[in-house]
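Lecture notes, unit on protein representations.

Consider one protein chain, 46 amino acids long.
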Amino acid sequence: MRPSDDNTGTELYECFACGSRTETESGDQCPGCGGQMRNLGRPRDL
């Protein structure tokens, strides 16, 4: 059985450096530490 999908339609971004998450992209930089933000909704190489 598949888990329920709680997709809200917003994109989630995570900081490479500190790991903080936000729903809005703030110019590719983390508002907390200034690190680079990545879009968690995009596919990426593992």
